[in-house]
Amino acid sequence: MKTQIKSVRTIGKLGKASLIAGAVSLGLSAMAQAETYRIGITQNNVGVDSYQTTYENAFIESASENPDVETVVLDAGGDVARQIGQIENLIQQEVDAIIIWPTNGEAVIPAVRKAHKAGIPVVITNSNIDEKGFRFVKSFSGPDNITQGKRSAEIMCDKFKSMGIENEAQVVHITGQPGYTTATERAKGFEDRLPEVCPQVTQIDKQPGDWNREKSQQVMEAFLVKYDDIDGVYAGDDNMGVGALNAAMAANRDGIIFVGATNFAVGYEAMADGDYWGSIYQSPVDDAKAALQTTIDILDGKELPFLNYFDTPKITQDNMDNFSKPVF
């Protein structure tokens, strides 16, 4: 509808258009100004960490600054069934578009298909769905999580090389929520890349931390009891990484290299203290704004690539002065 109105508005400016055509154009322009896009979003689990809380606040603020956008903001609370119900509710409300931060990249596909059949464009944000659901989605907006995992592996390998232990180092791995695409992709990127850059480094164990600092601390405590020799810890985000760091510090296990992703403020602070080595810099504010703009562009009829990634560079103790402290 908006694209058609813009076309009429342009025609009304051509040559010696009749007064009637001009009046029609002005009338339609007034109608266009009165219309808004109604966009629904269902998020993964806002309360689980500060990244998701900051994302939601940034999304709401960005939408409020656009007079042509109304939003329905929902949170699945980490519950797949609840998120499916929210998607179905948004379909019944006949929103113009739905943004989904999936709780589970495979389980939400039937609901995404329902939105597609209803003619409602779907944008996936932050963490992609399983590939078999791609045909029901207009676009993905977020980080390239596989690349993030690869970059974390490179950070760890470079540090091991500088320490001269790249031929013997042993690593444990704390992943995010099982079944969650971001967790799967970051783990894959790390595990694919580490043998390429440091073929003698061994990953000796892997357990989920569910994006939770306290659980990750417990996982690390178990690792420390089980293994006398741990040289590095890779965590799927810094919230979990700092939980692992806390466990190591409590056990007086020094010399372990901690590398994470999604550089939380706690990770940045631990890096500044010299206790945490590196991470991947990612802004939830950029993430939220990108998802909203991608959705608006699609509703405006713009052609976009299916995968809309924003850059997430490496950050370590060596270059952290080049980055602002995260706000989450």
Please give a structural write-up.
The protein is α/β, with parallel strands linked by helices and 328 residues long. It has two domains: 135 residues, Rossmann fold, CATH 3.40.50.2300; 137 residues, 3-Layer(aba) Sandwich (Rossmann fold). Helices cover 46% and strands 17% of the residues. The chain contains eleven helices and twelve strands. It has a six-stranded parallel β-sheet with strand order 2-1-3-4-5-11, with helices on both faces. α5 links the parallel β3 and β4. α1 packs antiparallel against α2, α3 crosses α11 and α8 packs across α9. It is elongated and about 60 Å long. The N terminus is likely disordered.
What is the first-to-last residue Cα distance? 38 Å
The CATH superfamily of the largest domain is identified as: Response regulator
CATH domain class name of the largest domain: Alpha Beta
> CATH topology of the largest domain, anyone?
Rossmann fold
Going across the major beta sheet, what is the strand order?
A: 2-1-3-4-5-11
Helix content: 40-55%
What's the main sheet like? 6 strands, parallel
Number of helices: 11
Low-confidence stretches: 1-34
How many independent structural domains? 2
